[in-house]
Design goal:
This protein has 18 helices and 23 strands. The strands form seven sheets. The chain has a five-stranded mixed β-sheet, with helices on one face. Strands 10-11-12-13 form a four-stranded antiparallel β-sheet. Strand 7 and strand 8 form a beta hairpin. Residues 8-22 have a biased composition (Basic and acidic residues).
């Protein structure tokens, strides 16, 4: 079997519960188990045909696609009981054998198809040689499934080439497309030479380069990880393990280790601080290579200088306290003759232009050259997983009081758009709902198609979360105008970048009976869990909204993608399934019952009837608060999934008449601040599996007892027959003697 394994959408763990289960589970692979069971089954049938009886076995299963299917024969392994087979049974067995052979052929074809998919993914890779300016040629290992862009990222992370951002890769003089797969590059093979060619800068590339240099200088500083910037995440494994996860290096290692427990865990400590939840390295304060790296106040370049290729101006203060004004041009970076009082863009002597800002700063400051090299060495001494950025931004809910240092680039990001203009130009805004739903409609028949689909879903979802986070911050900061500015602040709603924003307050007393604002604060999180559950089920034809819940400055903001046409009509006119007034009026829809019925088989939600205020029974397959809306695009959307999972009865108000006055005077029972507590999906699944296994064990026990009872009755019958036969033989013998 190949090293790469796949999990089909229909084989997810959450979907296995509604399938047939076998009593015994095998740890073997599905394909090998299928072949073994087919062989065993065929041999048992042949024995039946040849010998007229079946062999005594503990149990026999035909496993197809991982589930029990077809012929199942379970006998008590007593070594004696063998049922006889008559002529009609032989015909049935022969037909069963033919059916098994057909199933075997079909299974073999399926296995061959899966093996082809596995082979398509399984790739050992090959080595290519990289020739970059200023460094010796070196080899890297690549895979034919990778993109050319991944080689770019590798070079930008490598210690000796990390300071280069604006370059292209060429093979035999042909520039490679960044988004092309290596297997599609003509002439690329084992030992090929790929050259790194420096490209002219643009304003965007120059800003990217400066930002990348800033990130390299701050790579040892955890401030960005605590603040949730640039996909930085916290990693404490190396700190806690005290370097044991890294490669062992030769050298002196102290034999004695200080095992004295810290003060905050001793019994004498009265106040427990949460600061130790963020373990810190015992190393000294991080190295500094520059005092100041910022954009100059002479920006933007005047029109005459733009014609000469000036893109932007930088201001630098070195550790030697020397001040320089730098020019970023299309050719690279150089020192100009400007000062704080006078603008002079002419190059200073010597007139040298460096394509990399690091090369220029290394010539200007020996301290920068030394400390920058040390920073990169320490960065590469970390575990690879520690220095690789996460694919999506992580936010820490606790952070120590770290030093706040001057950083002009950080300040620029806080008050301006970062590299992009998508939220400022109306024609460039993205239709998030269409992107989210289109990626889910991608084909998933073969393994490569499923991989492409999952990558597209992850990319769009990550972009949506990042945009929603920026929008929520802008909403709380007051930088987005409300669509209902005349309403009270907590009742205002916002639309920014095709994303709908609402605040976590009880609007129009919707949650008055459930706890008011406390319930409204919890409802978005319950709704998010429901969206995740239905999204994981992935029923074709059933769509959920892109949903993000953001907590910022004490506010809870819910960001959702917009259903096409929802803003053009009233909500009562849009809802074709569910209730808009918490169960007073309930409507149902045949298509929604079908779609939600499929999802309910996995989520353990069975179709049921509810009674509206008129006393009429209405069939639904979800909570009554769930709403179904058919958008202008013809898709069937569901929203308001806060009641997807059962309520937690431990938080349901009790009957106070059962308690004495003394207990009530002491403040018991204590009421929870809201009534929207619900069980987690993991608990529901675990309960279902536990009850199912209990049923299977009980059924197996009764079947075993029934089999033993039948066997004992048969033994008694045979003994009775034998005694009768013996008696008849004795009587016959006695009669013969008398004659």
């Amino acid at each position: 079997m190949p090293a790469v394994c796949e999990l089909r959408p229909s084989d997810k763990t959450s979907q296995d519960s509604d399938k047939s289960h076998s009593v015994e589970q095998s740890t073997e692979s599905v394909s090998s188990l299928s072949q073994a069971n087919h062989c065993n089954h065929n041999s048992s049938i042949n024995n039946v045909l040849e010998n007229g009886n079946s062999e005594s076995t503990k149990d026999k299963h035909i496993i197809k696609n991982g589930y029990a299917n077809g012929y199942v024969d379970e006998d008590v392994d007593d070594g004696q009981y063998s049922p006889k087979v008559n002529g009609s049974d032989l015909n049935a067995v022969q037909q069963l054998k033919n059916g098994v052979e057909n199933e075997t052929d079909a299974a073999d074809k399926t296995d061959n198809k899966q093996d082809q998919e596995f082979i398509f993914i399984h790739d050992t890779g090959f080595n290519v040689q990289i020739v970059a300016p200023g460094v010796d040629p070196f080899e890297i290992q690549v895979s034919s499934m990778e993109l050319v862009q991944e080689i770019h990222h590798l070079l930008m992370d490598r210690e000796d080439t990390c300071h280069r951002t604006c370059f292209s890769l060429q093979l035999d003089g042909v520039t490679l497309d960044n988004f092309a797969e290596l297997k599609n590059v003509e002439g690329l093979k084992e030992g090929s030479i790929i050259k790194v060619v420096e490209e002219p800068y643009t304003v965007r590339e120059a800003r990217i380069h400066v930002r990348h240099i800033r990130d390299l200088l701050k790579s040892l500083d955890p401030a960005d990880a605590y603040n949730g910037v640039e996909c930085n995440s916290l990693s404490f494994l190396n700190v806690i393990a005290q370097g044991d996860i890294l490669e062992k290096k030769k050298g002196f290692r102290p034999e004695s280790v200080d095992c004295t427990p810290p003060d905050f865990i001793l019994p004498s400590c009265k106040e427990r601080s949460i600061t130790p939840l963020q373990p810190q390295s015992k190393e000294n304060k991080g190295l500094t290579a520059l005092k100041v790296l910022t954009t100059s106040g002479w920006n933007p370049p005047p029109g005459t200088r733009k014609l000469h290729g000036d893109l932007m101006y930088l201001y630098v203060i070195t550790l030697e306290d020397k001040r320089f004004h730098l020019t970023a041009s299309t050719r690279g970076f150089y020192v100009n003759q400007s000062t704080e009082e006078e603008f002079n863009p002419k190059p200073a002597n010597p007139k040298l232009v460096y394509h990399s800002l690091v090369d220029l700063l290394s010539q200007l400051s020996s301290s920068f050259k030394r400390n920058f090299t040390l920073i990169q060495k320490k960065r590469h001494q970390r575990h690879p997983f520690e220095r690789v950025a996460t694919p999506y931004q992580m936010y820490s809910w606790t952070a120590p009081n770290i030093d706040h240092t001057i950083d002009s680039i950080r300040a620029e990001d806080a008050f301006s758009s970062k590299l992009g203009y998508e939220e400022h130009i109306p024609g460039q805004t993205r239709d998030w709902n269409e992107e989210l739903q289109t990626t889910r409609e991608l084909s998933r028949k073969s393994l490569p198609e499923r991989l492409l689909r999952e990558r597209a879903i992850f990319k769009v979802h990550s972009d949506f979360v990042a945009a929603a986070t920026r929008g929520a911050i802008a909403v709380i900061d007051g930088n987005v105008m409300a669509i209902n500015p005349g309403e009270e602040t907590k009742m205002q709603m916002f639309i920014w970048n095709n994303i709908f924003f609402s605040l976590g307050f009880d609007v129009k007393d919707h949650y008055k009976e459930f706890g008011g604002d406390s319930a409204a604060f919890v409802a978005p999180n319950n709704d998010l869990q429901g969206v995740k559950a239905y999204t994981a089920v992935d029923v074709e034809g059933l769509y959920t909204l892109g949903t993000v819940v953001i907590d910022y400055r004490g506010y809870r903001v819910t960001a959702q993608s917009i259903i096409p046409g929802i803003l053009e009509r009233e909500q009562e006119q849009s809802v074709v399934y569910g209730s808009v007034d918490f169960g007073k009026t309930v409507v149902t829809h045949k298509k929604y019952l079908e779609l939600l019925g499929k999802a309910g088989q996995v989520l353990k939600i069975s179709p049921h009837f509810v009674i509206n205020e008129k006393g009429e029974e209405v069939e639904i397959c979800s909570s009554v608060e769930c709403k179904g809306i058919i958008g202008n695009d013809g898709r069937h959307y569901i929203l308001d999934l806060l009641r997807t999972f059962p309520p937690d009865v431990n938080f349901v108000p009790l009957d106070l008449s059962e308690y004495s006055d003394e207990v009530k005077s002491l403040g018991f029972p204590r009421e929870h601040k809201h009534k929207l507590c619900c069980l987690r999906q993991e608990l529901v699944d675990s309960f279902f599996e536990a009850r199912y296994l209990m049923f299977i064990k009980l059924a197996a026990f009764h079947l075993q007892q029934l089999g033993l009872k039948t066997y004992k009755e048969k033994e008694l019958n045979e003994a009775a027959k034998q005694s009768i036969t013996e008696k008849e033989c004795a009587d016959k013998t006695e009669v013969e003697k008398m004659n």
